[in-house]
Amino acid sequence: xxxILTLDAKNGLLNLxxxxxxVLCVGHVNPDGDSMGSTLMVMKWMKRLGKEAHVVMPNxxxxxxxxxxxxxxxxxxxxxxxxxxxxxxxADLIFVCDHNHKxxxxxxxxxxxxxxxxxxxxxxxxxxxxxxxxxxxRPEMCATCELLCHLLTELGEMDTLPLDEVECLYSGMMTxxxxxxxxxxxxxxxxxxxxxxxxxxxxxxxxxxxxxxxSPARLRLQGYLLYSKMKVIPGMNAAxxxxxxxxxxxxxxxxxxxxGIVNIPLQIKGMKLTCLMAQDTEHPEQYRIxxxxxxxxxxxxxxxDFFDGGGHKNAAGGKYVGSEEEVIMQFKKAVKAYEHLLK
Length: 343
Ligand code: 5GP
Ligand code: MN
Known about the structure:
By secondary structure, the chain is of the alpha/beta class.
């Protein structure tokens, strides 16, 4: 593997860190495990270096991620806007983690824009926007946390990495790869895992702490969606599900309970593309779209074409303003347009 840092990037990074006193780590809207793991790891690292450091997220993360070390310290802009603003305003260095476009911080973006301090991007998404003094972008990596793992190894930090930071990194890698079932075929991924285990990680226990924590309601939601809502489009190797806010209330669904459900229909033999379209709880006039695929099917392109979104080849998302019927029509239209890649 090529080195993560050129000499210039290394000096730039270390100089920016050296000069900083108040560090802010920012993740993306609807934070996932990688967004949480990467920002929290960097926060803890900066604290070890004697700096004041905080994580600010545009909105609340799903409850199941609260086992990631330090999650209780995350300041969510939607629930604590005043505190979040204060932290953003006072920061003299900003780490942009697990996203590479300003608009991925949604309502927090204009607040961030007011602070002109230097930024360091650490990210694994395609096509980074150019707005950071140092941009460390490696789209081939399975997670921002994998990138951090290689980076810390290069900086000589890995041999003494504290266990809580080790768990942050593994949480990000595990959640972004469906526990190493997709987007995780590079040997370097397991070099990282090996180093983390050498630092004391109990990977099986962390898996159970993160994933085997369902409420009965969350498990029932999966059953309901698979039994009553999953539709397979004949001959297309594509399936979709929709979820309305009325159904969420009926099933007593909590924030984050839909996490992972979109992947389940990929277990059907021959399935290439799956989609969950869930009515937005904050903006009920629109649906949040989650897409998953296998092999070369480009979810991100379909999402850009039909759902004003993007993401990775095998995992992408977007949105659509309309009713349940309309969003289903839109998905069917998208499948028709991509028929040649699905059949
Ligand atoms: P999820 O289905 O887990 O919400 O999103 C999967 C991936 O799609 C995310 O990691 C992110 O990269 C991307 N994604 C989700 N929503 C959007 C969106 O609205 N716009 C863009 N550009 N990417 C998105
Ligand atoms: Mn990620």
